[in-house]
Amino acid sequence: MMAMIRLGYPDRIVEIRKNRVYLFKKRLYSADVSDVIRAMYDPTFPIPRVFLEVAEDVAQVLERFRSPPRSYPQVLQDTPTY
After folding, report:
1. 46: alpha, beta or left, given left = phi > 0 and alpha = psi -120 to 50?
2. What is the mean pLDDT of residues 38-56?
3. Model confidence pTM above 0.85
4. What is the mean pLDDT of the chain?
5. In what order do the strands lie in the sheet with 4-8?
6. Is pLDDT at 55 greater than 90 in this prediction?
7. Distances in whole angstroms, Cα of residue 34 to Cα of each of 39, 62, 75
8. Angle, helix 33-41 to helix 55-65, in steps of 10 degrees
9. Sequence-ordered alpha helix ranges (H) in 1-82
10. What is the pLDDT of residue 58?
11. Could you read off the pLDDT of 3-38 as tens digits, one per residue?
């Protein structure tokens, strides 16, 4: 994961640092990234409601900036290709 990602909104700032999400909207909130993502799928998850407003954006930006998948060696075929 990247060291830090910032998202700007008209009324709040969201910062993703390592495995934490920091959200400033009149006061500072913080939560684990996994909890913010889980709250997106389970709105009853016990997390401050302000994270529900940005959970989808956090998930999208993490998906966009995630490290590429590992490359695996090619599988060699025993039969020739024609």
Report:
1. beta
2. 93
3. no
4. 85
5. 4-8, 13-17, 20-24, 28-32
6. yes
7. 9, 11, 35
8. 120
9. 33-41, 55-65
10. 95
11. 799 999 999 999 999 899 999 999 999 999 999 999
Tell me the CA distances in angstroms from 49 to 28, 40, 77, 81, one per residue in order: 13, 11, 54, 58
Looking at the chain, how many residues does it have? 82
Whose structure tokens read 């998850």? 45
Per domain, the residue ranges of the chain are: 4-65
**CA-based nearest residue to 49, from 35, 64, 61:** 35
Q: Please choose, from the candidates 46, 1, 53, the residue with its C-alpha nearest in 3D space to the C-alpha of residue 23.
A: 53
Query: Residue 1: what pLDDT?
Result: 47
